[in-house]
Amino acid sequence: MSQHLVPATPATPGRTNYIHPGNSSMKHASYGRIRLDASTPTTTFTNAQQETGLICLSGSCTIKVDSETYSLAANDSLYIPKGHTVTITTSSTVDLVECSAPVDDNYPIQFVPYANILANSKLHFTAGTPGAQRAIDIRIPGRTAPEIGPFA
To answer: What is the CATH number of domain 9-108?
Structure first.
């Protein structure tokens, strides 16, 4: 088993940072899960000097970034620049992937509904040859691709 494989990440409720520079060979990036339900319906954090990408794997939630609120459902994504207070709340259940890394500059928040990804051939496409094909989704587009946005 790989030393970087973390089993049962969906089993832990709340916000958990599983892989980060302090416990892996990762030099900058961190990976975690945020699982909320009736027993733990809300979590709040400040991302300080880290830019943060959230991808909704299942369920739904509202994410408040400072004074702006976004509603995410399965496969929707949200890019949050550094220095923001983030509150995530669900009235049912939600499972989010959280990826973050240090960043120097400030970039705009990007809410990316999955329907917009499916409608854009630069963000949703098929790769590989017959027998080894797979669908590719770019859930959080790069900051340097203005021709792809806006998404909100």
So the answer is: 2.60.120.10
